[in-house]
Each structure stands twice: as C-alpha cells, then as structure tokens.
C-alpha cells in the first residue's frame, strides 16, 4: 500500500491505475439522454442508470438507438419479468464469515440498511441489463440467435415493481484515495477480459463504505480463485442468452426508432456490448452472494 500508515480497511492490492470507461453521469444528462435515463429508472424499478447506458450515451446516437430496441420490452415489463428467471441462476457458494465480519465493523443499523439497499438496486438492475445488452448485441451485430423453446419464447407475465430508492452518490475513481482505488481495481480485475476497462458501478457505490468493501473483497476473492464465481456466471450468461433470444423473436424491427449506428461507431459499440455481456453475469452472481451475507437490519 502507499503511504506509511495504511487505513484500517487496507488490503494487499495491486497498484494498477484503472482508467474507467467514458460515460455521461446521471447528473450531467440533458435532453434526450436525460429522458431515456428517466425511462430506464421508471421501467426497471431501480433508481439508478447502469454504467452500460451511461457509456452508450457517449456514442453519437448510441443510447437513442439502444433504447429504441429495448424500450418497448422495458415499458411492457417483459424484460424485468424475464430478468427474474435469470436471477434464479445466480445461486452459488455462500460467503462464510462475512456476516460476522460486517457486524464487527459496527456500521450501525442505518449503514447496514444503506448497503443492503445498494445491493438490492444492483440485484434488480443487473439481471435486466444482461438480457437488454444481449438483445441489443443480437440486433446491432445482425446475428440470428439459436432457436429457443416455446416456453422461453413466450413472454413471462409482467408484474408491478416496487421502486427501490436512489443510492448514495457513486464515487468517481479519480476522487478515491489511492488505497481505495487500488481495492476497487482489485475487485474489478478477476472477471475482466483483455482490454476490459469496466469498473462495476456496484463497487463504486460500495466505496462509500471502504471498510465494508474490504471485508467483502476478502470474502469474495477466494471464490474467484476457486472458479465458483465464473461457473455461476456461466449459468447466468447462458440463461440470459436464451431470454434475449426469446425477446429477439418478438422484436418488430420496423418499429425500432433512431437509425442504426454504422461504421466505426457501430464497431466500437459492439465491442462495448461484448465487454458487458462478459462482465454483467459476474456482477449478478457477486451481488447475490453479498446480499445473502448481509446481516438483518430489522
């Protein structure tokens, strides 16, 4: 660690500098971007805009086109309903000892409740995100997905979603102390593919509680090393592919809104979607594991 006195949450972490993906933060969104962000919050029932959409907003016309593809499925409740089935695939190893370690931090009832709310937000959003991203990727790449069963193709019945309130502010990488940035970088690296610059929003939100993030890292990293996270993420990814294929079969391509991106923008958007297709299932699993180890806040 840097400095002579490491903070109490310090871990032995790699001192690599993470350069995050460009994004349009929620607070800086205007015009159509702000309208789409509001639509995402409204239809997901989670009061945040996930990183994938904040990143797509940096491509000229990219976010507008993506919303033209997924928006109808969000408005109808189909993608959130399909996401419930994806979330069921996230069951994996428990995190023994984490609950006691969290209690030992003495964060208080309010602190524990706030962390639980952040986890609930991402556990609502990420199963939706992986289907939405895969669906957009099918369309933008001009791919025809493998046939799915009639049961998978039929849309599940949507249901009203209780809105999960907004979390604390997301912590920008450049605003983090070096030790905390290194910790976030370490958590971001196990599931990264070559050239992946994704710093999951979950870790940046949990960076509001560095001691919690540190004990979570100690509990999670052995499961990465043992392959348990990757195995569970593979199940999530396979099921999300099938759900996205079911939605794709119902897509009316004549009603997709803005013109499809072309040329270099299209190529770079596909590369970004690929990175998120690889990464989001991991975060579905991690979110479920962390939430299952949270102490009760009643």
Short description:
Helices cover 58% and strands 0% of the residues.
Notes on the protein architecture:
With 298 residues, the chain is mainly α. The chain has twelve helices and no strands. Helix 6 (108-140) crosses helix 11. Mean pLDDT is 88; it is low at 1-17.
Helix percentage range = 55-70%
Unreliable segments (pLDDT under 50, ≥5 consecutive)?
Answer: 1-17
Q: Tally the helices.
A: 12
E-strand count: 0
Overall pLDDT level:
88
Question: What fraction of the residues are assigned to beta strands by DSSP?
Answer: under 5%
Order of helices and strands: HHHHHHHHHHHH
**If you compute it from the alpha carbons, what radius of gyration comes out, rounded to the nearest whole angstrom?**
19 Å
Helix- and strand-based class?
mainly alpha
Reported for the largest beta sheet, the result is:
none
Distance between the termini: 37 Å
Q: How many domains in all? A: 1
Q: Which word captures the global form?
A: globular
């Amino acid at each position: 660690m840097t400095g002579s006195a490491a903070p109490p949450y310090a871990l032995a972490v790699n001192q690599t500098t993470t350069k995050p993906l460009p994004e349009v933060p929620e607070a800086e969104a205007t015009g159509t971007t702000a309208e789409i962000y509001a639509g995402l919050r409204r239809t997901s029932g989670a009061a945040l805009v996930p990183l994938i959409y904040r990143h797509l907003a940096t491509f000229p016309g990219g976010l507008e086109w993506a919303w033209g593809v997924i928006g109808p499925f969000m408005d109808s409740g189909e993608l959130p309903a399909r996401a419930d089935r994806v979330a069921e695939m996230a069951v994996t190893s428990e995190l023994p000892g984490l609950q006691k370690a969290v209690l030992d931090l003495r964060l208080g009832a309010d602190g524990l409740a706030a962390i639980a709310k952040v986890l609930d937000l991402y556990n609502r959003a990420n199963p939706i995100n992986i289907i939405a991203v895969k669906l957009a990727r099918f369309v933008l790449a001009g791919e025809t997905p493998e046939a799915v069963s009639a049961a998978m193709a039929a849309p599940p019945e949507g249901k009203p979603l209780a809105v999960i309130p907004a979390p604390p502010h997301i912590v920008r990488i450049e605003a983090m102390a070096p030790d905390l940035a290194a910790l976030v970088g370490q958590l971001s690296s196990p599931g990264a593919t070559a050239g992946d610059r994704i710093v999951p929003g979950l870790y940046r939100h949990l960076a509001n509680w560095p001691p919690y993030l540190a004990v979570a890292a100690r509990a999670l990293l052995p499961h990465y090393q043992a392959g348990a996270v990757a195995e569970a993420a593979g199940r999530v990814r396979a099921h999300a592919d099938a759900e996205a294929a079911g939605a794709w079969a119902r897509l009316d391509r004549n009603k997709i809104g803005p013109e499809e991106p072309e040329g270099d923008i299209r190529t770079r958007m596909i590369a970004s979607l690929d990175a998120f297709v690889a990464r989001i299932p991991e975060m579905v699993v991690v979110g479920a594991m962390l939430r299952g180890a949270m102490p009760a806040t009643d």
